[in-house]
Amino acid sequence: MSVIDLVPYEEALASYDPVMGLEVHVELGTKTKMFCGCATVPGAEPNSQVCPTCLGLPGSLPVVNAIGVESAIRIGLALNCEIAEWCRFARKNYFYPDMPKNFQTSQYDEPIAFNGYLDVELEDGEVFRVEIERAHMEEDTGKSTHVGGATGRIHGAEYSLLDYNRAGIPLIEIVTKPIVGAGDRAPEVARAYVAELRELIRALGVSEARMDMGQMRCDVNLSLMPKGADKFGTRSETKNVNSLRSVERAARFEIQRHAAVLNEGGKIVQETRHFHEDNGTTTSGRIKEEAEDYRYFPEPDLVPVAPAREWVEQLRGELPELPRLRRQRLQSEWGISAVEMQSALNAGAIDLILATIDAGAPADQARKWWLGELARRANEDGVELAELPITPAQVARVSALVAEGKLTDKLARQVIEGVLAGEGEPDEVVAKRGLAVVSDDSALGDAIDAALAAQPDVADKIRSGKFAAAGALVGAVMKATRGQADAARVKELIFEKLGVTPE
Amino acid sequence: MADLIRCTAAETAAAIASGEVSAVEVAQAHLDRINAVDEKVHAFLHVDTDGALAAARSVDARRAAGEELGPLAGVPLALKDVFTTKGVPTTAGSKMLEGWRPPYDATLTRRLKEAGVVILGKTNMDEFAMGSSTENSAYGPTGNPWDLSRIPGGSGGGSAAALAAYEAPLAIGTDTGGSIRQPGAVTGTVGVKPTYGSVSRYGLIAFSSSLDQGGPCARTVLDAALLHEAIAGHDPMDSTSIDAPVPAVVAAARQADVKGMRVGVVKEFGGEGYQAGVMQRFHESVELLRSLGAEIVEISCPSFTYALPAYYLIAPSECSSNLARFDAMRYGLRVGDNGARSAEEVTALTREAGFGPEVKRRIMLGTYALSSGYYDAYYGSAQKVRTLITRDFDRAFGDVDVLISPTTPTTAFPIGERADDPMAMYLADLCTIPSNLAGNAAMSVPCGLAPEDNLPVGLQIIAPALADDRLYRVGAAVEAALNDKWGHPLLEEAPAL
Amino acid sequence: MPGITREEVAHLARLSRLELKSEELDHFAEQLNDIVDAVARVSEIAAEDVPPTSHPLPLTNVMRADEVRPSLSPDEVLAAAPAAEEQRFRVPQILGED
Ligand SMILES: [Mg+2]
Ligand SMILES: [Zn+2]
Question: Which residue from B143, B7, B137 is spatially nearest to B75, judged by alpha carbons?
């Protein structure tokens, strides 16, 4: 790897306009694979979800999964695409051991959806339109594990082990048209596009689109052209970028790298590159001696797909509210700012908050817990919010306990900690940890007597009408009961014992 | 029962159903015959003695239990080694799959088993069904029972030879460019390529997916019809399978009547390159049909002369992709894995060692036809020719009920004669290929011996897609009239083995 | 039509993963030339306005319900593997992109 002096970002953008192309692969959440009836359960033991078809055994044949086609159409419609009246699958021929037939069943010049757009919102509320070239159906490959050599990397490995459980899982590949005019916001646009696409895929319910699990993977194609030029430069293709943050960093790095090469009078090589999470750089992939020739041709084992217009219109009518519009609605319903809404989106909290509201919690409480305490925990643990071992129903129960006066905020945090630690439902944690607020008069009586005895001067002040002085006594009682007392009730009892009635 | 191995399938099934003979006796008689003659014929790559006897025992048990048996229960069959058979070796005639025991049955295999058909074993074939002589088998050639020094046709030479050698009354073939009909013609047996999509391809090791079609092989037209009905019908595992009722081919074979039918003679098939004796028998067949009450019309299908070149672009293109899966990673042969070589190198060494020259030639030809820069001129143009051929058929079938031609330009040629002359070999399929390109139905029935060499000649009958029954009507009528004329079936003139 | 050179045959062999021997390259070059010469005729009648046929029958929209069917057992899957380890196919080192 040659070391390169990157051009500072602002300087690069002063001389060049970036042009981006984003290719996103989404693994559908269908029950079965794209062309066979094998299950798609994640984490199954190796080669246990494999049949003659997805193993590419001689004689086997594919049959299209109807939900795969339906999902592709729904994604296409949500991306404002035209839906093909007639299209075919095509074989993309190349040899690779993780691909059982040594061709990928994909689509070539007849994609099921084409010519669309997705409006994405940047941090400051500016809306940027990303044009969509096409969305097409294809299948995933198996997984290889490299043995020997350094750290499971392919280079220097002695041999590889192949598991074909993933082979044949449906993929939708979504390709943008060249994204021009984003200027210095190109990396931000890339990130916002992928984030918005992820929300959309989730809203459609066609995939969980977990980037960390490879259910959604992004290739970032980038080139620069000198300001004022009208011809695109040579692009690099950074493959399989697997988080939103990485998408932004990869684009940013490539802008700086391209600028450095171009400034020195060098030429960009059209090549695939790999992004490194650890240091945010990209390195060159293998440069092939000869150009790939995929020899695409119509898949003779499958017949054309010709979605009836009535079906397409029915699917269009059933599309859920699209995420950006839903966010606008929720923002006004919740009465929060665009920035607050954006942070809820970035945290992946919107659906969790809604589910918590559905489970009975007030909106502000639901937001408070997910974006406060829980977001902090998720961040600390380096996991997505949805992965925390707590459900919206449990958060709603905690919120209810606080509203009923059975927990203070401070105690509620301890209950949540207990739930996250696997100690059970909120009520069980309250019981096991003995966290309930003490409002039982007799239990409080002794503590109040002790406080009055210890601070007779304060008691006198209260008797003389300085009711605000009661705070000191309440504090003492709370301390004595380790925070579990119901402060309001303590105050009432103090006034009762002293025989006063505050207005 | 007279001679168990010389009975037709229909007769055998009736004898088993009536209890006159047991399925086990029938199976044993055929296994004995195979033992006696197959060393000379080499029709079989694998004889499944235990499986066959077990299947026969089960038929006998079901009969004993009073179960009603299907029309082919207990009848032995020779299965082309291109259909998968669970646990039974399946090689497609290639070294690449030597010793492979598939973990699943082809739909056709399953249907045969469900019909109580007794599968005797797997028959020899050109490697991956690429060839017209069975010389391209990695396991050595098959001899034509009429003259063991001659080819039995191909790719399904083993299945046709097994019938002609009385090793089985029924056989299965696959027809991509004529691989059922041409072996049928040169061995004096009946072979049918059903309408594309009517017999499931699930479990058929693909050569050219848009052309491959499994079908029945038999010694009589009625037997072929019985087998046709057993194997045809919709299969949800094959996306190209037709979801419609199978034409009533058995009834048509029994009808055996051509009165009032319009029969078109394809003008383009004949003349230069056609053996005189073949044309003589063909012309006699035309006159025979006329005498049986058919109306004979000459039909021109001008684009048929482009069928052969189109076929030799489409079939290799599809095969170059279909055979890519043989890469030494998951099953089959692996050569040259010394721990230092890469997967890519091991794949290339294995394919070099595991494929024969014809397969390599076609893979490279197909790779060429699909590569960027050549696609439009070759693969693209070939698919357009396919459209033109279909239009010729449509026009013809607007006028006539069936078309006829010789099945092959010549009778069986000597083994080795065309082995390294691919273009000469390809001519064997000249008349059969148009139906594969268009997907319609076609049959070859014996129509006599060529006077110059006393070898069988086949008459090809072609019907529109989904009108397979017409083949059987015409074929059975020709068969009955000729058997009458000769006083016996043609095959009885074959020399004893 | 241009002839197929030995180099082109070598390229086709690489694309199709065939480790051809030197004498095979010459032999195949000659035969492929003959064949290509003969089949190139298709372009004579393949006019612009003729649509291509990729499927012999005009079927469309053949699909299956998204319902799980039994898979093979891992033993059946791996039974024919030239090499296996940890219930996976063991294959020689993959020269890929990394
Ligand atoms: Mg793709
Ligand atoms: Zn499967």
Answer: B7
